[in-house]
Amino acid sequence: MDMTTQHITLGAINMEAENPVELAAFWGTVTSAVPSVGGGTVYLPPAGPGGFAMFFRPMAGPRLERQAAHLDLTVPWGSRQAEVDRLLSLGATYKWDVLDEVPHVQWTTLADPEGNLFCVAEHPPAS
């Protein structure tokens, strides 16, 4: 068995949506990517190097009461509030801030238009 270390990358984040086209449009605006609709699904390509892709498909069943995973988006130090304000203007909903819990990160938790939680985090510069 070859034990060579391989570089793993994120291919895409897959999400079920009540309205895949509308949810992909929201995330396309968030990430500056252009959605590609195919049948009942939508692919959102990475918006450049270091970006991530997303894939939206119709809901297969009822939405779970508890969200087991969420996206943590990172912005440069000092720009979190401006980015949160931008995302709110696009249709995100404010949930809460965590500003003093840990010294190496501050974040705001938001929900996308279908209620999926995500965070916008900033890390202070290294001393």
From TrEMBL:
InterPro entries: Glyas_Bleomycin-R_OHBP_Dase, Glyoxalase_6. This is Glyoxalase-like domain-containing protein. Pfam families: Glyoxalase_6. It comes from Winogradskya consettensis. SUPFAM superfamilies: Glyoxalase/Bleomycin resistance protein/Dihydroxybiphenyl dioxygenase (SSF54593). Residues 13-120 form the Glyoxalase-like domain. Gene3D superfamilies: 2,3-Dihydroxybiphenyl 1,2-Dioxygenase, domain 1.
